C-alpha cells in the first residue's frame, strides 16, 4: 500500500489494526484479545445486537413444542437481532424463512462448519419453515486464487456435506452464486448496491483502494437472499415473508448493512441468531482453520485420525501429570475436550457429570479425551453414512430452481 | 463531498475538473474545449487509439465487396483499436462478432442514438456476422433515480427502436442486463472484477468514495459482452471468436479496461471502431441530450415538430440576413444543418453541391434547412413505419436466449 493509500484509508486502517491485545472480528479475521479469548459480551455491545436469555429459549420451546437444541440451551447461539419481533410475527401466524450459507473454500467441511447447519436443520424442523442456503463460490473466487471452475466444484462438494445434515428437500433450496445470480436475484443485488457507498463498505468491511471491484460489490450478493423476492420460485413477489439468519457472529457486518438497506427497499429487516466460534483443537483463540489440518476434525477424517488429533492436539486444561490432575483438577475454562463436548454431547446429565468429575480431578485428561473421541467418531461416521446417500441427483434436486410447494407446515 | 473526501480524491477530482477550456470526455460527461468544440485529434492521442485512414476504408470495401457506409467515408466513425488485426483475421477466415449497446434512459431515441445502430447494421450486413446488443438497464438504474421496473420497461421500448433499424433476427441477440446477467455471463463479470481494483476504476472513470458500489462494479458488466463465452447459446465455450465494438468515442474508457483484462483471462483483445459525437441542434459542444427536447430530433417527432425544431433551433453558420449570406456565404465549420446533412444525406454528389452553393452564398440558410427537413422527415417517417411492425413478439424473438444457428454467412 502506498503512503498516499495509507493516508486515504487512515481511520479504517486503524480500525482494522487495533492496538495489541484488542480483539478483531470481521468476516475474514477473528483474533482474540490480550488473553487470546474472544470477549463475546464486548462483541455484542460493539455490534449492537442482543444476548439470548433463558426467557427467549423457553419461548421458542413453547412456540415450537420442541425441546431446545443444545446449541441454544448451552449458549452456543447466544446473540440475536429482532428475534423477539420474529417470534411475535410467527405467533400471529405470519410466515418466515431461514437463510444461511457458506463460502466453499475446502474440499471437506470441518466440525466448526457443521455447527450452523446442524442448528439450522433443527430450526427448520422445529418451525417447519423454508430454507435457502447460499454457497458463495463467487466470494471464494474473488478472495482467493481459485478458478471459477474450482470454486463451483467445491460448492457442489460442500453441498453434499450440507445435505447430509438432513435438510428437507421439499422446503430447502441450495444455490451457488455462479449458478443462481440473475433475474430477480440480480435485480435485488442492484437495488442493494444502489443503497451502499464505497465509503460505507470501507467502514463496515475495511475494504481499501487496492481491493478488486468484485469484493466491493460482493456484500450486496450476500445481502440479497435476506429478501424473499430474490426467490420467485418460492415466494413469488412477496415482500412480507420475514427472514431469520442463523450464522456465526463474524457475519454480523453483512447483515447490519442488509438491515440498513431493508426499509429503504420496502422490506422487513432480517432477524439474526448468532453463534460463538467453535474453538480450534489448539485452544480458543478464534475459529478453526481449514488450512491447518491439525486444528480441526474434518467430516472425512477416519476414526484413527480423530483419535490421534484429539490425543495429540486438543489443548488440555487438566494437570500436566495424572498426579497433578488428581490433586488440582482441570481448568474447564481453557479445556478444549470439555468445550467440544459442550457442543456435541447431547446428554445433559452425562455432560454435567463429566464436568464435575473432570474439574475435581476424579477424571483424568485421557478419560475426557476418550469420551470426546467416542462422541466425534460416532458423529463423523454417521455423517459419512448420510453423505454416501447424497448422489449427484440428490444435489440437483436441492439445487434446481423449481416451483416449490409445501413450504410451510 | 467532505473535505476529507476531497483530499482523498485529490488527483482524480483534478482530472475530472480540468482548467477552464480543457475538454472532458468520459462516458458521463462530454464538454468541448475553450471554443466549445471537441478536438478529436487530441482525444485520439489522449486515449491512445488510431485514426481510420482512406486505406482502411478501401480495405473494408475490398474485403466485404460493399461500398463504404457514408459514416465511414465521411469520418463519422473515425478512430479504431486493432481494426487492422481484426481484418487480418477476417481475411484468414477467422470469425468475429459485433457488440454494441445502449443505456435505456429515455422513452424514444433521438437521431444521435441511432448513429451507432445504423452503422452496426451496415457492418452486420457487410461482414455477415453475429451481433449482441446490450441494454444496460442496470446502469441507468444505478446512475439515475429510476425504479428497476421503469428501467426494464425503457429497455424494451428502446429495443423496438433498435430492431426497427433492420437487424437480422437470425444473427442478433438483444439483451437487458436485468434479464440476462447470470450463468456464464455472471462468471465472466466476476472474472473481470477480480482483475480491476477500486484504484483503477477511480483512475479510469473518476469514481469517488461517495459512489454507490453498484456503479463501482458496473464497468465489468459492460466489459463482459466483449468475451464470446458470455454467450454460450451463440458461441458455446469458444474464446477464439474476436469482438468488434462500434461505439461513440466516449465509451472508450470501458473498453480500455476490457482490453487490459482480456489477455489475463485468455481472451483476444476486443477491437473498436469509434465515432464522433452527433452535434446538438444548438451547435457542436458535445452530445445531444435526451433531457433537452429542443436539442434533438426524436424518432417519434412529427413532421411539424421536425420542421419547427430545425427552423427555430438549428444553429446556422449562414449570414444573419439573406443579403449578408449572399455577400459572405456560410461558415460550414459551425453550421448544424450542414453537419447533420453530412450524417444523413446519402447522395454524395448532392451533398457536395449543397456545401459548395451554401458556402459561397448562392444557397440561403432557409434553403439548406429545407433540405435537412426533407431528409429528416423521410428518415423519421420510415423509422416509424418500421417500428410499427416491431410487436412484443418480435422483441421477444430478438431477446430470447435461444440456440442460435446461421451465425455466419
Automatic annotation (TrEMBL), chains A, B:
**Per the UniProt record, which EC number(s) apply here?**
6.1.1.2
Write out the annotated subcellular location.
Cytoplasm
Q: Which GO terms describe its cellular component?
A: cytoplasm
Q: What is its main location?
A: cytoplasm
Q: Where is this region: Disordered?
A: 1-25
- Renumbered to this chain, the Low complexity biased-composition regions fall at 1-17
- Domain of life where this protein originates: Eukaryota
Q: Which GO terms describe its molecular function?
A: ATP binding; tryptophan-tRNA ligase activity
One biological process term from GO is: reproductive structure development
Q: Which UniProt keywords apply?
A: Aminoacyl-tRNA synthetase, ATP-binding, Cytoplasm, Ligase, Nucleotide-binding, Protein biosynthesis
Membrane-spanning regions, if any?
A: none
Family per UniProt?
Belongs to the class-I aminoacyl-tRNA synthetase family.
Q: What is this protein called?
A: Tryptophan--tRNA ligase, cytoplasmic
Amino acid at each position: 500500500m502506498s503512503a498516499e493509500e495509507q493516508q486515504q484509508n487512515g481511520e479504517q486502517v486503524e480500525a482494522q489494526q487495533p492496538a495489541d491485545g484488542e480483539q478483531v472480528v470481521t468476516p475474514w479475521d477473528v483474533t482474540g484479545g490480550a488473553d487470546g479469548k474472544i470477549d463475546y459480551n464486548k462483541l455484542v455491545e460493539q455490534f449492537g445486537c442482543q444476548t439470548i436469555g433463558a426467557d427467549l429459549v423457553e419461548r421458542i420451546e413453547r412456540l415450537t413444542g420442541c425441546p431446545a437444541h443444545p446449541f441454544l440451551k448451552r449458549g452456543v447461539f447466544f446473540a440475536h437481532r429482532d428475534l423477539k419481533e420474529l417470534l411475535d410475527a410467527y405467533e400471529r401466524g405470519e410466515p418466515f424463512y431461514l437463510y444461511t450459507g457458506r463460502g466453499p473454500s475446502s474440499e471437506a467441511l470441518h466440525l466448526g462448519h457443521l455447527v450452523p447447519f446442524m442448528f439450522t436443520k433443527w430450526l427448520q424442523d422445529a418451525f417447519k419453515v423454508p430454507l435457502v442456503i447460499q454457497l458463495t463460490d463467487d466470494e471464494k473466487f474473488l478472495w482467493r486464487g481459485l478458478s471459477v471452475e474450482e470454486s463451483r466444484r467445491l460448492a457442489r462438494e460442500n453441498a453434499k456435506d450440507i445435505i447430509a445434515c438432513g435438510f428437507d428437500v421439499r422446503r430447502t433450496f441450495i444455490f451457488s452464486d455462479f449458478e443462481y445470480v440473475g433475474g430477480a436475484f440480480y435485480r435485488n443485488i442492484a437495488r442493494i448496491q444502489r443503497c451502499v457507498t464505497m465509503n460505507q463498505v470501507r467502514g463496515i468491511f475495511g475494504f481499501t483502494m487496492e481491493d478488486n471491484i468484485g469484493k466491493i460489490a460482493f456484500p450486496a450478493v450476500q445481502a440479497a437472499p435476506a429478501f424473499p423476492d430474490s426467490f420467485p420460485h418460492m415466494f413469488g413477489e412477496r415482500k412480507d415473508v420475514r427472514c431469520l439468519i442463523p450464522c456465526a457472529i463474524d457475519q454480523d457486518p453483512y447483515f447490519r448493512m442488509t438491515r440498513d438497506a431493508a426499509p429503504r427497499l420496502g422490506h422487513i429487516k432480517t432477524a439474526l441468531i448468532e453463534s460463538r466460534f467453535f474453538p480450534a483443537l489448539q485452544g480458543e483463540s478464534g475459529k478453526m482453520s481449514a488450512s491447518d489440518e491439525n486444528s480441526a476434525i474434518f467430516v472425512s477424517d477416519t476414526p484413527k485420525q480423530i483419535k490421534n488429533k484429539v490425543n495429540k492436539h486438543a489443548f488440555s486444561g487438566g494437570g500436566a501429570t495424572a498426579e497433578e490432575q488428581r490433586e488440582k483438577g482441570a481448568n474447564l475454562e481453557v479445556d478444549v475436550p470439555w468445550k467440544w463436548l459442550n457442543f456435541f454431547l447431547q446428554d445433559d446429565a452425562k455432560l454435567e457429570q463429566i464436568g464435575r468429575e473432570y474439574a475435581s480431578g476424579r477424571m483424568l485428561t485421557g478419560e475426557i479425551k476418550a469420551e470426546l473421541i467416542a462422541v466425534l467418531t460416532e458423529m463423523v461416521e454417521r455423517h459419512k453414512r448420510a453423505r454416501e446417500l447424497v448422489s449427484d441427483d440428490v444435489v440437483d434436486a436441492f439445487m434446481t430452481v423449481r416451483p416449490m410447494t409445501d413450504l410451510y407446515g
